[in-house]
């Protein structure tokens, strides 16, 4: 089989048309989070964002396709190279450091964003964290062995001055989390943010509460630094280091005592003071946005520090409020315990005492609107669901969503399904396709042939199913099971191939969900390769999650290096004794959706469906060379290779 050797031009985002759109729908003014260092190290094509042209094209595409008006460009690469001690404790960290350093030395991405964003009517804020300063190598990122690796970075400030981090009653530091009761901690972060805004000419700064730091053993473990202890004694006449009500290990610990809550409130006041200092130091006209969790407290991994968001808004300390931030429970095994068991009063990660989108709009938006502060909701993705939500909520004060940078990876296909994929009511369904693998994903250990799955969203409703290929070549099908209408993580069921999938050849893969028989089945080239018992639960239907071909459904990670053809979804538990001998017609009994990749038309459409149905796969940035030879006798296929992308 002949494979094109020419590097693919930019693909952009592929969408399946869904019919008529309501006239003049309200347009959100969205923000986008661009984690630039991760794009540099993990992506390819335009998604790598390592040239002037790639950045310029991406900004324009985000404006046109995703209603992005505010660019939140993460400055962590600059912060890391300037202020952190870096250790190469794993190959991925060396790669991240070396690639991002070379990119910074080769050109100035922040200058490019500053110059290009206004051409699209976009503003540019530096995305910086305030409580994310790394750890010594005796602490493992991701949890203790075998889960984690020694921490790869630590701020030189905390190396030289560990005393400015939060402490527990024994004087142990929670590494990476500054104690804002110290003026020195506030001065450090205010100075860095103001200096960066001035140096790079941004329109302001987005201050995010995100961190990589490990969680506490208990939500009320930390917060006993001398200035906190002294101020609490001055106000209330109580020594919190001696009173058992404040010691989570003591039988006298009183988590719900008003005196304990007053201590949490005091801790939150120092965070407000940081924003007050930042506002005073920020040049006139520069904006400050805050990214915070919903709920009453800052939550994991910081603990039950009170979140005085009303003061930030009412005192004019911020210009934009983005709620819905999480720090990622998946990083540390400890956080996989129910957060209520760890003493948290609220938790984004665990959806514990967290207001819904509508409740958040009712809670935050009126206060923000009264004081001229824009209110955004963190959504991670942006599609039909978010547009529908915005249409219903914009009159109540929702400015828009804060989303992750949409994939611009060459070869990624992001599709809105028409018709929606809904398997049989009795719980049967089959997905099958031809697959060609050029190489396995090494850096992130997993690549995704297809993914209709996003684990990040708080209510977990976007968990569905996906096809993965691991670094050792084994194929894995993940299917999330949950009763219809229920919320929560559900049950992830897996079936794994008995051997690695071969490279450099076409193979037919079919995965079967069979609830009546309580099993998943995997066929490779018509042979039953593996089967796995599953609970008596239906496959979760998640119509609001896009089907992604070529990378993970929640972000542009795990890029698949290969091709796909003849992708079919059926509502029956099919059996295979051989791979298909000829192309499907598209009208076989039980077919729910069928995608063929045969021809790019002049208007930028790919003829994806058989028969007389209109083409439903459109290349948003125009017709480009995204097709290659399919299996012998099957015509063309969609090329999802990690191509070099377009010219700079």
Name the descriptors.
alpha+beta; 648 residues; disordered C terminus; eight-stranded antiparallel beta sheet; disordered N terminus
Care to describe what's here?
With 648 residues, the protein is of the alpha+beta class. 22% of the residues lie in helices and 26% in strands. It is built from twelve helices and 33 strands. The strands form eight sheets. It has an eight-stranded parallel barrel with strand order 2-3-5-11-12-15-16-17, surrounded by five helices. Strands 19, 24, 25, 26, 28, 29, 32 and 33 form an eight-stranded antiparallel beta sheet that branches. The chain has a six-stranded antiparallel beta sheet with strand order 18-27-20-21-22-23, with no helix packed on it. A hairpin with a 3-residue loop joins strand 13 (297-299) and strand 14 (303-306). Helix 1 packs across helix 4 (91-106), helix 2 packs across helix 5 (109-116) and helix 7 runs parallel beside helix 9 (258-281). The longest helix is centred in the middle third of the chain and has 24 residues, at 258-281. The radius of gyration is 26 Å and the shape is globular. The protein starts with 13 loop residues before the first strand and ends in a 9-residue tail after the last strand. The model is unreliable at 1-22, 610-616, 618-623 and 642-648 (pLDDT under 50).
């Amino acid at each position: 089989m002949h494979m094109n050797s020419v590097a693919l031009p930019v693909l952009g985002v592929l969408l399946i048309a869904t019919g008529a759109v309501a006239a003049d729908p309200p347009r959100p003014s969205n923000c986008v989070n661009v984690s630039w260092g991760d794009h540099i190290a993990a992506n390819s094509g335009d998604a790598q964002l390592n040239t002037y042209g790639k950045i310029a094209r991406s900004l324009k595409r985000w404006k046109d396709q995703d209603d992005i008006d505010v660019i939140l460009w993460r400055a962590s690469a600059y912060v890391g190279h300037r202020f952190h001690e870096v250790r190469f404790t794993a190959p991925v960290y060396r790669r991240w450091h070396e690639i991002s350093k070379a990119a910074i030395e080769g050109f100035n991405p922040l200058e490019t964003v500053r110059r290009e964003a206004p051409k699209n009517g976009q503003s540019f804020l530096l995305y910086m964290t305030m409580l994310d300063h790394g750890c010594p190598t005796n602490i493992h990122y991701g949890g203790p062995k075998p889960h984690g690796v020694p921490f790869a970075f630590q701020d030189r400030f905390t190396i030289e001055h560990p005393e400015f981090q939060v402490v527990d009653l024994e004087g142990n530091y929670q590494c990476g989390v500054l104690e804002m009761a110290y003026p020195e901690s506030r001065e450090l972060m205010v100075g860095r943010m103001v200096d960066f805004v001035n140096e790079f000419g941004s329109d302001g700064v987005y201050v995010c509460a995100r961190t990589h730091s490990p969680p506490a053993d208990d939500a009320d473990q930390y917060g006993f630094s001398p200035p906190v202890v002294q101020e609490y004694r001055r106000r209330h006449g109580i020594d919190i280091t001696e009173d058992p009500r404040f010691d989570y290990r003591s039988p006298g610990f009183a988590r719900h005592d008003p005196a304990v809550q007053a201590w949490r409130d005091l801790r939150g006041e120092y965070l407000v003071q940081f924003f007050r200092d930042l506002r005073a130091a920020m040049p006139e006209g520069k904006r400050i946005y805050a990214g915070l969790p919903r709920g009453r407290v800052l939550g994991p991994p910081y603990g039950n520090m009170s979140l005085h968001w009303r003061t930030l808004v009412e005192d004019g300390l911020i210009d934009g409020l983005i709620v819905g931030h999480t720090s990622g429970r998946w990083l540390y095994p400890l956080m996989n315990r129910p957060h209520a068991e760890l003493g948290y009063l609220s938790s984004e990660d665990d959806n514990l005492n967290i207001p819904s989108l509508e409740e958040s709009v009712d809670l935050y938006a009126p206060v923000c609107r009264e004081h001229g502060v824009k209110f955004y909701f963190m959504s991670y993705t942006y599609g039909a669901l978010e547009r529908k939500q915005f249409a219903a909520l914009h009159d109540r004060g929702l400015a828009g969503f804060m989303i992750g940078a949409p994939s611009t990876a060459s070869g990624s296909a992001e599709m809105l399904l028409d018709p929606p994929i809904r398997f049989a009511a009795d719980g049967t369904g089959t997905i099958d396709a031809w697959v060609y693998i050029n190489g396995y994903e090494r850096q992130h250990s997993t690549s995704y042939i297809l993914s209709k799955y996003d684990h990040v969203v708080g209510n977990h409703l976007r968990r569905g199913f996906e096809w993965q290929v691991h670094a050792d070549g084994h194929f894995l099908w993940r299917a999330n099971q949950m009763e219809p209408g229920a919320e929560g993580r559900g049950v992830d069921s897996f079936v794994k191939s008995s051997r690695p999938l071969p490279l450099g050849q076409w193979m037919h893969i079919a995965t079967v969900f069979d609830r009546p028989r309580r099993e998943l089945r995997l066929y490779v080239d018509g042979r039953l390769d593996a089967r796995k018992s599953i609970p008596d639960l239906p496959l979760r239907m998640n119509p609001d999650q896009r089907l992604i071909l070529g990378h993970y459904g929640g972000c542009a990670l795990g890029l698949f290096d290969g091709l796909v053809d003849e992708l079919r979804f059926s509502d029956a538990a099919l059996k295979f004794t051989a791979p298909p001998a000829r192309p499907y017609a598209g009208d076989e009994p039980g077919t729910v959706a069928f995608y063929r990749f045969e021809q790019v038309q002049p208007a930028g459409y790919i003829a994806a469906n058989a028969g007389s149905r209109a083409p439903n796969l459109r290349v948003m940035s125009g017709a480009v060379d995204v097709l290659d030879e399919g299996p012998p006798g099957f015509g063309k296929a969609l090329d999802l290779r990690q191509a070099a992308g377009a010219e700079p």
